[in-house]
Amino acid sequence: MKKKLFFVLFAIIFVIGMELFLRIYFGFCDTVLIQEDLDLEYIAQPNQERFRFRNHIEYNSKSMRSEVLDSTAVKILGFGDSVINGGVQTDQDSLATSLLSKGLSKRYGEKVQFLNISAGSWGPDNCYAYLQKHGDFGAKSIYLFVSSHDAYDNMNFEKIVDVNKSFPSKQYISALYELVDRYLYPRLKSLIRETSSKNTNLGINKNEDDSTFNTGFIPFLAYSKNRNIPLTIYLHADKEELNMGSYNEQGQEIIGFAKANGINLIMDLENGLDQSHFRDKIHLNSRGQHKMAKIILDNWSRSVKGY
Q1: pTM of the entire structure?
Q2: Could you say which of 66, 147, 226, 264 would form a disulfide bridge with 232 (CB–CB 3.0 to 4.6 Å)?
Q3: DSSP secondary structure string, 218-281?
Q4: What pLDDT is attached to residue 6?
Q5: Are 174 and 19 in contact (CB under 8 A)?
């Protein structure tokens, strides 16, 4: 009886200890929450401050992964998907947009906010829907961050919030349950099936069978021309393209669109991107976020300043 009691107490203490460790050290039960949106498909819930996987994550009242909007600051809008968003694996201070805000503020001696308007798997059409819904906040310049897969990655409005575990609307009640349900069980199931779900792992390519060039590109161009706001497209290469030394067919279409319409284009494949900048086959690690910021700053004098 004493041995049984000992093991029961040990098990209770172990479970409580693991629960506290996962919550306090790794930030379980404190992930970024998402909400459905009739216009954008989905977006991060506003006004969030999270601590997840040792990283600080912040969303302002407009669901931007940026600090609180400053009415006196010069604003540059940065639209994109999980690449510029960084996810919970990237600390707020290591985001390219955070680094650009600091770098440009220092360069021009006035406060500049390079705003991060993004969500996993967003394409230019999601981004433009946000622009239509919320306006441009008096921005002096717009940056659209895309990858080759965005050429045909159109919105389909399939339910994703609380269906894909990477897009939850509420926190888990237990850190241990979250560890098992969100991470261990899906990976075990993937190993058994000897396959991997690309949407769960990367959150990209929602509608890769669509043959329509993403419907957000042309409206962004028209918006920037009508309001005389300079537009830049930043084309990010994935690891496969890096290995090939060139963008794939879809990337070439984006390049052709930008050149045909006189849009300022930055291609990180031509600006020193290398293997050390990736955390997986497409997303950037902290070093990669710093590289992205440096590429934009280095190209700033050769691009449209915007103010």
Answers
A1: 0.91
A2: 264
A3: HHHHHHHHHTT--EEEEEE--HHHHHHTS--HHHHHHHHHHHHTT-EEEEGGGTT--GGGBSSS
A4: 81
A5: yes
